[in-house]
Amino acid sequence: MRKAISQKVSVGEQPRQSDLEELKKDGVTTVVNLRVAGEETPLTPAEERALAEKLGLQYYHLPISLDKLNATQVKKLREILANSKGQVFVHCGLGQRACSFSLAASGVDTDSIFRTGTRAGFSGAG
Q: Residue 126 domain-assigned?
């Protein structure tokens, strides 16, 4: 479910309640949800926020759609990653979008995004 792309950031698929509990045990302090309205998900963003906050996790919902990308979204994710006091878990449906955007927000160049994403197990990350 979770794949580290740096010492601070890991990415993966939509977590369930038990996954959020495991993330907390593993030292994650911040969860970022990139899913957009209409994506089928076991938890709504509101449910996920409530569970995350109950566990003492910082929670952000930053909906990112591949057909409506803009630089502001990458900048916002960059700010969240930079300002987090601990480990960050970024997710989408399967983890590919989370991987690509987290690498871009971390300042990784375009060619390296694809290589790093592939090494993390995401074929054609992006």
A: no
